[in-house]
Amino acid sequence: xxxxxxxxxxxxxxxxxxxxxxxxxxxxxxxxxxxxxxxxxxxxxxxxxxxxxxxxxxxxxxxxxxxxxxxxxxxxxxxxxxxxxxxxxxxxxxxxxxxxxxxxxxxxxxxxxxxxxxxxxxxxxxxxxxxxxxxxxxxxxxxxxxxxxxxxxxxxxxxxxxxxxxxxxxxxxxxxxxxxxxxxxxxxxxxxxxxxxxxxxxxxxxxxxxxxxxxxxxxxxxxxxxxxxxxxxxxxxxxxxxxxxxxxxxxxxxxxxxxxxxxxxxxxxxxxxxxxxxxxxxxxxxxxxxxxxxxxxxxxxxxxxxxxxxxxxxxxxxxxxxxxxxxxxxxxxxxxxxxxxxxxxxxxxxxxxxxxxxxxxxxxxxxxxxxxxxxxxxxxxxxxxxxxxxxxxxxxxxxxxxxxxxxxxxxxxxxxxxxxxxxxxxxxxxxxxxxxxxxxxxxxxxxxxxxxxxxxxxxxxxxxxxxxxxxxxx
Length: 474
Known about the structure:
- This protein has helices at 18-31, 46-55, 64-67, 72-80, 123-127, 132-139, 155-166, 183-195, 226-243, 246-254, 290-298, 332-337, 339-350, 360-365, 459-469, and strands at 6-10, 36-41, 60-62, 85-89, 105-106, 143-148, 172-180, 200-205, 214-215, 218-219, 276-280, 302-306, 318-323, 355-358, 368-369, 372-373, 381-397, 409-421, 430-433, 436-438, 440-442, 445-448, 451-452.
- It has 474 residues and is an alpha/beta fold.
- The longest helix has 18 residues, at 226-243.
- It starts with 5 loop residues before the first strand and ends in a 5-residue tail after the last helix.
């Protein structure tokens, strides 16, 4: 592999402006005529939707917990193939890992990074697994720290210097200052950072011109506000182009060392006449990883996207159905009103076609969602709640399904504010710990709150496609 210019946009904590800077940088570099690859550390589905608008390329996630650290560089090479520069947006604070707010629940411990000589691991190596710093090290990418300076002066330099020196394995190359109030404020910050020996790659003034509205699980997905989201990304690009030294950032990215190695490739051979797998999309089903479709196609399936809010029929020849995550609770009325499609989904499941549903998909298959009729495939009633369920999960398959055999271990995550009753069926899908079962397996249907990244479990795609191929055509 030729050394691909790359850098990581990180921050001391959430809410400092990482997404604005990362998306803006992607858009600004693309506006210069460069082919830009966008990546997101962690399991988040929402930010990558904005990356796709900024780059014009499929979004990509890099998550050592979900996929294993050995796959991070290969997945990066795969996603960045054919581009000239890559921008990686971090998650939470730079050193916040899988054991932080996104705590692991389930059997066993999360995977750990191998340490130095003799396999000895330092406490720091143990605690930042899955963090932005961890991914930056795996990619050999320089880190630029976005610092919110709205309520600080010289102390910003102390903060940035602390991050730069905290872990010698993860050096911070410089900072981008956000929410700077005035020329005087900027001079004070620049002088303090110069004393600390930290370059300033950009200064972004306080601005009200960029609106990326949020709700209970973060930013509103780009697919739910396509025109406005595109305008917001354009404004981010213009802001970063005017506020940051793009030439200096490109020079920094170009200093990233070559990391030879193979790119990830989905196993199998794409088939020309394989089974049709319908994959839900549109505003209600925005959570999905790009590699899932690539794996299904490599396993011989033909992927057919559809929108359950708009389309009244499943794609022609559908032999299997993927219902990913999203915000069905925000679109329950529209999903319920599409009675014709709900009936088709129920009929498809009744004739034994494989159906895999994650989170939003589980709610769509339920009998009701907030008392509105859904597909009725499962005898489940779901409701919106004030409680946020969030975290990584190490799960063991309880029941054979079209995705996994009983006893297989997978890693995933939960991210929802809904509750499904019952939480598990007579044949549960997963066990997270002693006595903690979740999800439903009913014939060829498997549905649960667990989100998984199929690149970390490629056998799921082959198993699902093979089950679809056995469904009689109609």
